[in-house]
Amino acid sequence: MQGRETKLYVLTGFLGSGKTTVLLELLKRLEGHRIGVIQNEFGKIGIDGVILRNDDIQMVEINRGSIFCSCLKLNFVNALAEMAKQDFEYLFVESSGWGDPSNVEEILEAAKVVSGREYDFRGVICFVDAVNFMEEVKDEETAFRQLKHCNLAVMTKTDLADEEQMTAVREKIREINPVCEILTSKMGEMDYSFMKKDLMVYRWAESEETTNSVETKPKSLFMEYEGQIEKEKLDRFLRAIAPDVHRIKGFCNLSEHGWTQVDVVGSLIDYKKSEPFEKSQLVFISKTGPAVIKRIFSEWEACVGSEMKLRN
Q: Taking the model in full, what pTM does it have?
C-alpha cells in the first residue's frame, strides 16, 4: 500500500434525516484538508450534489439507485478504488436515504482487491430524524437496517421534537442497536469530537445481505418547469402530494423570493435561498409506486396550473 490510509466515514439515514446538513458542516471544519466525497441519490438528478459542490473537494456522484444494491454496487466499488489512489486525508460517503449499508464491509473489501489499497474505515454514522423516525421504522426495513449497522447514531431535528418524542426515539435506538454511540444535532450543530475516535469499537451487527434490490427500489420522478410560480401555490401542491411520497427536494423559482431550495419530509416543508438555475427542478421519491404520477399531474393542475414536464 502506498501513502497514508484515508479515513473513511459512511453516512446513512432515512430520506430527509439531515445527512447533507451535517456533511456541509464537516467539510467546513476540515477546510484545508484533502477531502473526497462520494454522493449517492435515488433520483436522476443529484440535488444534494449541487448543494455540496465545492472547487476544493473532489466529488463523485452515483445516482439512480442505492450504492449498496447490485444495480450500483460495482460503480461504488470502482469509485472507492479510484478515490483510494488520490491519497485523501478523509473520504465521506453520503448514501441515499434508501441505502441499506448491511454489506458495506464486503464492498470495502472488494475495493481493496481492485485498488490494492485499504481505507481506515472509521465507521457508519446513521442520522435519525427525531420527528419522523418512529413512523419510518414501523414501515421501512431500511430505516431499521441503517440503525442496526451503524456505529454512531445522530438524532437530528431535535429543535422540532418534544421531550416525549426524543425519549421514544432514544429508547428505539437502544432497542435496535445496544452499543452505538448516540449524539444529538440541530441544524448541523453537534459534538464533533467523534472525529478523534475510531467508531468501529461500537460495532454491533455482523455484515449481511442488503435489502436494497432492483425489486425494492422505490419509484423516483423528476419535474421541470420554466418561469416563476407563487410560493402559496407551490406550498398547496407540496402539501397535497406529501402523503404519497417519502421525499421531495429541489430548486424552484418563486415570484416573491426568487430561487429557493425546497425540501419536504413528512409534513415539514423547508425553504432556503439558493443559487439560480436554468430551470426549476423537483425530485419525488414515491410511496405509492407509479400511481403517484397521476396524483402529481392532477394536484399540479389544481394548485399551480402552469406547464411542467415530469420524467422518470
A: 0.85
